[in-house]
């Protein structure tokens, strides 16, 4: 007789790992995907591997081949220590592919490498949002997703399910600023994203590049990669770039008393700078290059007076 879970989400996924990375997660009790889900039937069985396919909406897109092979070797010796989680496939190809993976794609891939024909699986009835949440939590808490995959998953929760950054943060046990910063990574140029995916750059290194013009980023990227710039050095580049932009804006802006300064310069033959404050006070600065220029300016001022 099949029974409902009754113990919440933690009953689906064990709370420990072995040395080979098998096992599962410690889930924050604040993650209440839905109490109603515990009333639905969960079916634990052995499923033919050929009847299973990855969920196309799964946030994780890259897998380390050596790690998969190591896990496959462990599976050959010890078997699958924790069942994967599936949902029934309702798409057009459901005749061949009967199930989609919600959690455990890495174990499924390794089981195929180990030439297993069947794999233990929990079959659940989940909403699209539940599926995405579980996929994120399984991978994020195991640090299996790269930062861009995590950001993409967070963005899906935000846009497809209208969740705020605060709500997402609560579900995954992170702070809202972490969620916000991961989503911002998706604005980086494609070549920078590729460097993150391949492990050439870390999240800490690329985060300062978010605030830099993509053209400047593209210009400096080869140098950053070849010289292995630190996050601190890249941050200095970002600060310097922002300062240059600020100076350019200031230079292009029309200064107070600009016309008057030009008139004085023309009359006295000395470069003139006028500064003013919001209180209406200010100063006039006349510049000279040598004592002779000073004497000319002084003579003109004296005659004028």
CATH architecture of the domain at 9-129: Alpha-Beta Complex
Largest sheet: 5 strands, mixed
End-to-end Cα distance: 108 Å
- The general outline is elongated
Strand order in the largest sheet: 1-5-3-4-2
Task: Provide mean pLDDT, rounded.
Answer: 75
How many DSSP E strands?
A: 7
Report the structural category.
Answer: alpha/beta
CATH class term of the domain at 9-129? Alpha Beta
**Helix/strand order, N-terminal first:** EEHEEHEHHHHHHHHHEEH
So how many helices? 12
Query: Could you please say which CATH topology of the domain at 9-129 applies here?
Result: Conserved hypothetical protein from pyrococcus furiosus pfu- 392566-001, ParB domain
Helix content: 40-55%
CATH superfamily of the domain at 9-129: Conserved hypothetical protein from pyrococcus furiosus pfu- 392566-001, ParB domain
- Strand fraction equals 5-15%
> What are the low-pLDDT stretches, counting only 5+ consecutive residues below 50?
1-41, 249-253
Radius of gyration: 31 Å
């Amino acid at each position: 007789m099949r029974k409902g879970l009754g113990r919440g989400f933690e009953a689906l996924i064990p709370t420990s790992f072995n040395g080979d990375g098998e096992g599962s997660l410690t889930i924050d009790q604040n993650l209440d995907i839905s109490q109603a889900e515990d009333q639905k039937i969960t079916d634990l069985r052995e499923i033919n591997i050929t009847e299973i396919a990855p969920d196309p909406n799964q946030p994780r897109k890259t897998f380390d081949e050596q790690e998969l092979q190591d896990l496959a070797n462990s599976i050959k010796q010890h078997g699958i220590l924790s069942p994967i989680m599936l949902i029934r496939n309702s798409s057009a190809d459901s005749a061949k592919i009967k199930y989609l993976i919600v959690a455990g794609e890495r174990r499924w891939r390794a089981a195929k490498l180990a030439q297993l024909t069947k794999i233990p699986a929990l079959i659940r009835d989940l909403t699209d949002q539940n599926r995405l949440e579980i996929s994120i939590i399984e991978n994020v808490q195991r640090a299996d997703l790269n930062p861009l995959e995590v950001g993409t998953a967070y963005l899906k929760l935000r846009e497809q399910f209208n969740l705020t950054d605060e709500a997402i943060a609560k579900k995954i046990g992170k702070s809202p600023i972490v969620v916000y910063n991961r989503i911002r990574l998706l604005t980086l140029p494609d070549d920078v994203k590729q460097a993150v995916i391949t492990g050439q750059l870390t999240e800490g290194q690329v985060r300062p590049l978010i605030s830099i013009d993509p053209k400047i980023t593209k210009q400096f990227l080869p140098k950053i990669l070849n010289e292995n710039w630190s996050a601190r050095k890249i941050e200095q580049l970002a600060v310097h770039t922002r300062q240059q932009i600020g100076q350019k804006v200031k230079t292009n802006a029309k200064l107070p008393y600009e016309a008057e300064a030009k008139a004085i310069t023309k009359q006295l033959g000395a470069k003139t700078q006028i500064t003013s404050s919001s209180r209406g006070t200010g100063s006039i600065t006349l510049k000279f290059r040598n004592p002779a220029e000073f004497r000319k300016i002084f003579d003109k001022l004296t005659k004028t007076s």
